[in-house]
Amino acid sequence: MKLFRSIRFNIILGALIALLSAVGTFLPQTSTSPDKVEFYRLLHPLGFKILNFFGAFNLYQTWWFMGLLGLMAFDIIICKLWNKPPDISATALPPENTNEEEIEKHWSQREEALRLKPFQSSMDSSLAFDEAFTKARAFFERAGYAVHDEFHSPAGAAFLATKHRLQRWGSYIAHIALVVILIGAFINALYGFVEMAPVMEGTTVAMKRRPWTLSVDKFTVHFYHGTFQPSLFSSVLRVKAGDKLIGAKTIRVNHPLDIHGVRFYQASWGAAGMFRSVTLNLAGSFLTLRQRVPKKVPGSPFSVEADVLMPDFTVANGHADTASLDLKNPAVRFLFSIEGKPTPPLWLFALYPKVCLKENPDGTLLHAEAPPFSLVSVDPVLFSGIQVAYDPGYPWVVTGVLLWVLGLVLLFYFHRRRFWALLEPGQNGKTKISIGAWSSRGGRDFEKEFNRLTGEMKSHLDFK
Amino acid sequence: MSPELMLTKATLAAYLGAVTLSFVYLAYKDEKWNRWMLNLLGVGIALHLAAFGFRIHSFWQIPENRYFLPINTFFGALSYLALAVCGAFFVIESRHRLGILGAFVLPWASLSLGIAVCAASPEISGLAPALQSYWINIHPMVLMTSYAAFGNAFGVGVALLVQEHQIKSRKPIALCYRLPSIEELDNLNYRIIVMAFPILTIGIIMGGVWAENAWGRFWGWDPKETWALITALVYAGYLHMRYMMGLRGKKAVYVSMLGFACVVFTFAGVNFLSELHGYLSKG
Known about the structure:
The structure holds two protein chains of two kinds.
Chain A lengths: L1 H4 L1 H20 L7 H10 L1 H9 L9 H20 L17 H6 L1 H9 L3 E7 L3 H14 L3 E8 L2 E8 L3 H25 L1 E8 L3 E3 L5 E12 L6 E12 L2 E9 L4 E3 L2 E21 L2 E6 L4 E2 L5 E9 L2 E4 L2 E4 L8 E8 L2 E2 L3 E4 L6 E4 L5 E3 L5 E18 L3 H20 L3 E9 L5 E9 L3 H20 L2
Antiparallel strand pairs in A: 1-23, 2-3, 3-22, 4-21, 5-6, 6-7, 7-8, 9-10, 10-11, 10-21, 12-13, 13-16, 14-15, 16-17, 16-18, 18-19, 19-20, 22-23
Chain B lengths: L2 H26 L2 H29 L14 H23 L4 H19 L19 H30 L6 H4 L3 H34 L7 H21 L5 H19 L16
Helix pairs in contact in B: 1-2, 1-4, 2-3, 3-4, 3-5, 4-5, 5-7, 5-9, 7-8, 7-9, 8-9
């Protein structure tokens, strides 16, 4: 337990978590980039084996990383229970919680204690003792201080004036908040799920983690003018449990559908190679083709068939491929035949009308002369990438977050102050007033305020 | 050249002028140089705000961008960061009246704007659908405001190291007598971090809430998220070491500087690692 109580150990643990987290950002992670992990495996087989043994490619979900986070949560609790922050205000004027006789006996210790406070001042007021006490008390109340622990004895009187007492709880609330957030994360890890469901427009798919089906009746994507950069994409989504409709909404990014805590997000979209139609410009006349439906070119011996679409055309190992499912560089393969005799397939590009690639029988590609026709447009069949997520830990996380904000605001933006005032009857009907003070902020910051307040108090109590 | 770019270049000239004047003040400690520096900086900030206004106007010409702030590009982010550093400097200077702080803080604002002008594209583009959320006006702004404050703390830390070196050297130069005491600089460094740390963590949390809304997860260990967490852990370590273990002076400054190195990496370096948050990627 001694080890867990140590703040030094807690700091070392935090540093270790930070270091390991940093390592994870330089290695591809299976959860976010499985293709890059595979690429790493091919490039560095031995390095991959060693790192994979320690779970470095799924670092944040490994048992030991989760264990470190759990240990951190445990450590925070232990640390907070054992270690109180250094708080000079906890040293009240002695004797405290004793009977009056004891207090009488130790009155001198009060003065001694006052001298131990970081800030001290004393003054002689021309006011009579009772009036000075009332005025001093009223002075602090007017300055926004709460006056408590008032004490009277024949030797004198004392009181404690405090401001922003809640600040002390900030540290506790902030640390409890961290534990609550971590509990939320563990609940999510144990009971939550994330499921990706690519759904082609007009089709229905079944969910894996719930006995529900998802139907995308319509998928819409809008692009910024002259680009394939999407400005909006949305799906008209229906969710059914058996035959019963349990939810329907047009979802788009940042606007999910929520059914009993299971949320349906518009996460992505793409083109998988199918299209409704393509349009060719044949020396000024336009010819629209449906996928894999050959059509004769009017007034010529040619017939043409639009075969397949590569949404983000690239060449891999000499063959046609797609770099992604985004419509970044759409290209269509056309099969031509002259009087029923096939000619080598040609790849035409929507964005580069003068580029043409010829495909050999083994699938390899060669540059070809720009043909007298070009690809004008493609109307692809798109799929909607629906992400389904259930996070039962989220309410815990939100609670933790709110506590964290409250804790930090109290801890760092509030400034706790304590003034101890000790009043004793002096000679000639005067009153001797001793002031001690402490602040949760550094001494230098509080010095000005202390000097101002004691200065004002002097002028307030010296004159009738 | 667009009016925005013209104003941004004029702003950079004003900031560089303010940096020069702050060094002149440091050398001669004549109050008039400090006044001139503050005046020129004020002009720079006004020009910067005007440039930002023009950028917003152009940005809103694209209907999807309307009512969102143009900080989705590296240029926009760097420009706002420079403005925030100067704004934070003004607030700190008005409260603490140290005078010399400008020489240690304003170069970072000028550097940020200089990189924006020289190396980043000022072109305006449409927001990706994920960014079309009111959170874009809050989450990055809050985070960059904390970065700006940490930049100021870094400047104070540099001043402390210079002062410490001067005090320990056998022949301290005049600069030693112009800089505030080590205790004062150490306290200011701490105070700035104490103000900025909650802003940083609140900014990170806001990102989590936005991610929950957009992608269905509060935390996804994306490199940008992870590095923001690392930054928060380093500064939390600093606060604990100072508050609970009494760490002061040079050692405390080194820890805070490590935190600022994480801030810089989170802001700029992670762009090469993160696909979701990268200014350099489609974002």
